[in-house]
Design goal:
The chain is of the alpha/beta class. It has helices at 18-21, 39-51, 77-97, 109-115, 119-128, 145-152, 186-199, 226-239; strands spanning 4-11, 27-31, 55-59, 102-105, 137-141, 156-162, 201-203, 209-211, 216-220, 243-244. The chain has eight helices and ten strands. Strand 5, helix 6 and strand 6 (156-162) form a beta-alpha-beta unit. It is globular and about 45 Å long.
């Protein structure tokens, strides 16, 4: 049986629920100002993560606060480079000032989804992140283009799966425009995570079981009752003999 798993959450997005969530996760992805967040909020999240021994990651996105980074943007290579470097640099300066490691980088929203299927974009993104290759993990979805290109380029990766999202048979996420995109039932989330963690299987929206690899499981901080879901997940995984991989 798996004894430890990683539960991550996207934080610093202006919801002010970090203090409720942090005790029940083991890594977090901090908004760097692209889709949400600012330096003051990043500082607060970093300090909370240190208190609860939670691994810290940068969460860059398309520069689009209006749409919360959930709409694809067509940026030139230089435009993409400027925004990604700026977002991560701000976050890295804060972690350095607190003498804490930046553990990983995870793209947000539409950028994350675009990287999963767009080879040219993935190559550009990895070139931008080349300076961080030796020091951080990339959180990427299993079976994605970004996974393949990251491994080819020598990046360290962690496979990410989503605790609160339903999957299509091709392992893409059910679009948020669909009614069944987000899983809101706590028991269903627990079974979803346990099946992926223990059996490397995920039940798709069509009811089919598919193979999947997952090292870390995400619950979105803006999912309804995210803090309650994480608390339920934390305690019930513990009852099954599974703990969180804290620092």
């Amino acid at each position: 049986m798996i004894k430890e798993i990683d539960i991550n959450c996207d934080l610093g997005e202006g919801l002010n629920n970090e203090h409720l969530i942090m005790p029940y996760i083991s890594s977090c992805n901090v908004a760097c100002g692209g889709h949400a967040g600012d330096k003051e909020l990043m500082e607060r999240v970093v300090e909370l993560a240190m208190k609860y021994q939670v691994k810290l990651g940068a969460h860059p996105s398309y520069p689009d606060k209006k749409n919360f980074g959930r709409v694809s943007l067509k940026l030139s290579k230089s435009e993409l480079e400027v925004t990604i470097i700026e977002q991560i640099k701000i976050f890295k300066e804060i972690t350095d000032n607190h003498a804490v490691r930046m553990h990983h980088i995870k793209a947000h929203g539409a950028l994350y989804n675009d990287l999963a299927k767009d080879e040219a974009l993935s190559i550009q993104y990895l070139e931008i992140l080349n300076a961080y290759k030796k020091d951080v993990f990339l959180y990427v979805p299993y079976g994605s283009v970004i996974e393949k290109k990251a491994l080819e380029s020598g990046f360290k990766i962690k496979y990410e799966a989503f605790a609160d999202r339903n999957y299509n048979e091709d392992l893409s996420l059910v679009p948020r425009s669909e009614d069944n995109a987000v899983i809101k039932n706590e028991a269903q989330i627990l079974n979803h995570v346990f099946n992926m963690a223990l059996h490397q299987r995920v039940r798709t929206s069509t009811g089919k079981e598919m193979f999947i690899k997952a090292d870390t499981f995400c619950v979105h901080s803006d999912t309804e009752n995210a803090a309650g879901m994480l608390q339920y997940l934390y305690h019930n995984l513990h009852l099954k003999g599974v703990s969180l991989a804290k620092l």
